[in-house]
Amino acid sequence: MASAAAPAVAAQEEDVIIVGAGQSGLAVAACLSLRGVRSSLVLERDDCVGSLWRKRAYDRLHLHLAKQYSALPHAPHPDDAPTYLPRDAFADYLDGYASRFGVRARLRREVRSAAFDPAAGGDGRGRWAVEAIDLGTGKRELYEARFLVVASGENDERFVPEVPGMEAFPGKVMHAAEYRSPEGMEGKAVLVVGGGNSGMEIAYDLASAGAVTSIAVRSELHLVTKEIWNVGMALYGYHVPAWIIDKLVLLMCAVVFGDTARHGLRRPAVGPFTMKLTSPAYPVVDVGTYAKIRSGEVRVLPAAVKSVRGNVVEFADGNRHPFDAIVLATGYRSTVRRWLKSEDGLIGDDGLAARPYPEHWKGENGLYCAGLVRRGIYGSYEDAELIAGDISELLRPKQVQ
Ligand SMILES: Cc1cc2nc3c(=O)[nH]c(=O)nc-3n(C[C@H](O)[C@H](O)[C@H](O)COP(=O)(O)OP(=O)(O)OC[C@H]3O[C@@H](n4cnc5c(N)ncnc54)[C@H](O)[C@@H]3O)c2cc1C
């Protein structure tokens, strides 16, 4: 944060400042541009757009939803694109999207503060005062805008649980965001902590490469296949109630997987679609891990990690096992609350949208959020259209009666 004694810097004026050049920020900028709002600027901390896909995702990642649910506004994936896009193809798509819609993005700009000044602008509407640091030069930059769009992501920062003794573990410990491939893990005893999508897929990747793989799964989870989940998405598109989709999805899952609890993966009481719509939890899309669990290639340890002593990990159920390496697939968190100075109820204490979908995207004084309601790429699509529609309407000169 710049000190009060820092020299005055003239503020650059824009209609809209968008924080974050992931898919959400790019989609908002493109939709604004298509509605004739040219003065929008995206500020991005990293040195590329779509950095989650370029820098923080493992090599074998493919999108979990079919391409029709994984496109941004005005840019469907072509017929010859694979149904489930590989990570790099989606990253390339985002690069192409930014160029195609002439997105103005300023890279290596970290937003450190954004506050609404009701007196600024001289037209009675006030302005958002945004302070960023140019990470290349260290210089402080000021921006002023009537509208501020928070698109800084649900997954901005790695969440690493505090486990006594972990710091002294003699082997490699990495977060899923650093994991790229199983190279060097062949024959090693590796513990993956966390049974979400990343953890289950990384466990599959490791076991396929010959690592002796265990996965610590402390919570209940819904295992689905891509195909089953796409049936659910299609039904949702036809406004079929969530409880009916739940019943159908669970029936199909029972046929495909049998009783997953027999292998340590207990299902929650609430159905998978209702869970997705009403909570931050995603179902886990099986990429082949379950077959490896059944065959014993991946061992499920159904308890939280409690402590580490030397290379031995102790679990909450009292079991202890030695490992050579640990991958923490323990999730991420939003960092919005560190820089956004606003108490209008748009963003909750966890840095995500405070109000449930579909009331989540618009706050007070020209503040919006995109991609913060746990609805993935399709959520970015919807948010961008809503936000750009609203801003362009507010910027439209009023008709004289
Ligand atoms: C491994 C993984 C796989 C996933 N797979 C799927 C999938 O298959 N399908 C799906 O729909 N969803 C998937 N998701 C969910 C996915 O995170 C979201 O769909 C998506 O990344 C959200 O995009 P975003 O633009 O909102 O956020 P991000 O992609 O996180 O982009 C936010 C950007 O904001 C920047 N930023 C943050 N703070 C600041 C700041 N203070 N100043 C400047 N810049 C800042 C960050 O550098 C980042 O580039 C996956 C997530 C992960 C982690």
UniProtKB/TrEMBL annotation:
* Top-level EC class as recorded in UniProt: oxidoreductase
Coiled-coil annotated residue ranges, if any: none
> Is Ribonucleoprotein there in the keyword field?
no
The source's superkingdom equals: Eukaryota
Q: Which UniProt keywords apply?
A: FAD, Flavoprotein, Monooxygenase, Oxidoreductase
EC number(s) on file: 1.-.-.-
Cofactor(s) needed, names only, are: FAD
Family from the record = Belongs to the FMO family.
| Annotated protein name in UniProt | Flavin-containing monooxygenase
- To which species is this protein native? Urochloa decumbens
